[in-house]
Amino acid sequence: MEILIISGLSGAGKSKAASFLEDMGFYIVDNMPAAMILKFAEFCAGGNGRYDRVALVYDVRTSDSFTELFDVLDKLRGMGGVCRMLFLQASPETVIKRYKETRRRHPLSSGTDTLEEAVHREIEVMRPVKERADYVIDTSSLSTAQLRGELLRIFSGKDEKTGMTVAVTSFGFKYGLPLEADLVLDVRFMPNPFYIETLRLKTGLDKAVSDYVFSFQQTRDFLSKLEDLLTLTLPLYAEEGKTSLTVAVGCTGGQHRSVAIAHALTGFIQQTGYPVTEYHRDIPRG
C-alpha cells in the first residue's frame, strides 16, 4: 500500500494537487487528523486492493503540534509500505495574490492583524513539516499544467505525453457530430468508395477500401499534413494539462473514407507514444 501525505502552505495548491493525484489513481481524503491516519491505514490495508494508493491532505488547521504527525510517519514507514510526504509552497507574494483573487480567509487570519502577517506566520509554523517532506514543490511560477506534469513525473514515472489519452473516432455527418469531439476533420472532399459497387458494402477497415482511398495523391497529402499538425499540437495539449483528446474524422455515412483515415491516424499516434483508442461510431449503421 502507498500512502502520500499532502501538506504545505495555504494557497500553495494542495487542492489542485489532490485533484491531479486523484486522476492518477490515488484515493483522496482531505484534512485528516494525524491521530486517525494509522487507523485509516489499517482500514485501507484490509480493503482488498481498493485503497492501494491513498493521499491524505494535511494542513496547518489539522493540529497545533506536528509531533503526532511525525510519530505516525515513522510508524507507517516501519510497517513496510510506501509512505511519503509532499510539501507544496509558494512565495508570500504569490500566496497573498491568490488569496486576494479568491477572497477567502487565511486559516491563521484570526490571530493576526494582516494577511501578510498570517502568511509569514504559517511559513514559520509549517517549517518542521517542510523539513520532513520527501518532495517539495514551489508553485509560485508553475501553471496548473506544469504542476500536473511535475506530479506525473514524481508519482507515476510518466510525463505529459503518457498522461494524455487520445481517442480517434470515425463518424458520418448525416448522423450528427460526436458530442465529445475536440477536433473535427471533414474528409468528404475525398473520392467516395460508396460509388464503387464492389466496395459499397465494405468498410474502411477492409484493405480494398483503404487501398482505394489512399490511391489518390490528395488523400496521402492530407494525411501527411494532418500528421504534421498533430506532431505540433499533441505535445502542446499535453503540456497544457489536457488528460484526454478526441479527434473525430467524418465523411457522409461514416463507413468508408472516415474509417480508413481514422484507422491510419490511430497507427500514427500510436507510433508517437501517446496512449490511443480507436472507435468507429457509425459502422453498425451500414
SSE layout and pairings?
Blueprint: E1 2-8, H1 14-23, E2 27-30, H2 34-45, E3 53-57, H3 67-78, E4 82-89, H4 92-102, H5 115-125, H6 127-132, E5 135-138, H7 144-155, E6 165-172, E7 183-186, H8 207-213, H9 217-239, E8 244-251, H10 257-272, E9 276-280
Parallel strand pairs: 1-3, 1-4, 2-3, 4-5, 6-8, 6-9, 7-8
Helix pairs in contact: 1-7, 2-3, 4-5, 9-10
Would you give an account of this structure?
This protein is an alpha/beta fold. The protein folds into two domains: 2-155, P-loop containing nucleotide triphosphate hydrolases (Rossmann fold); 165-285, no CATH class. The chain is 42% helix and 19% strand. The strands form two sheets. Strands 2-3-1-4-5 form a five-stranded parallel β-sheet, sandwiched between helices. Strand 2, helix 2 and strand 3 (53-57) form a beta-alpha-beta unit. Helix 1 packs across helix 7 (144-155) and helix 9 (217-239) crosses helix 10 (257-272). The relative contact order is 0.13.
Give the gist of this structure.
This protein is an alpha/beta fold. It has helices at residues 14-23, 34-45, 67-78, 92-102, 115-125, 127-132, 144-155, 207-213, 217-239, 257-272; strands at residues 2-8, 27-30, 53-57, 82-89, 135-138, 165-172, 183-186, 244-251, 276-280. It has 2 domains: 2-155, Rossmann fold (3-Layer(aba) Sandwich); 165-285, no CATH class.
Report the C-alpha radius of gyration, rounded: 26 Å
Look at the structure and name the CATH superfamily of the largest domain: P-loop containing nucleotide triphosphate hydrolases
Largest pleated sheet: 5 strands, parallel
Helicity, as a percent range: 40-55%
Count of separate DSSP helical elements: 10
Give helix and strand order, one letter per element, not per position: EHEHEHEHHHEHEEHHEHE
Structural class: alpha/beta
Strand content: 15-25%
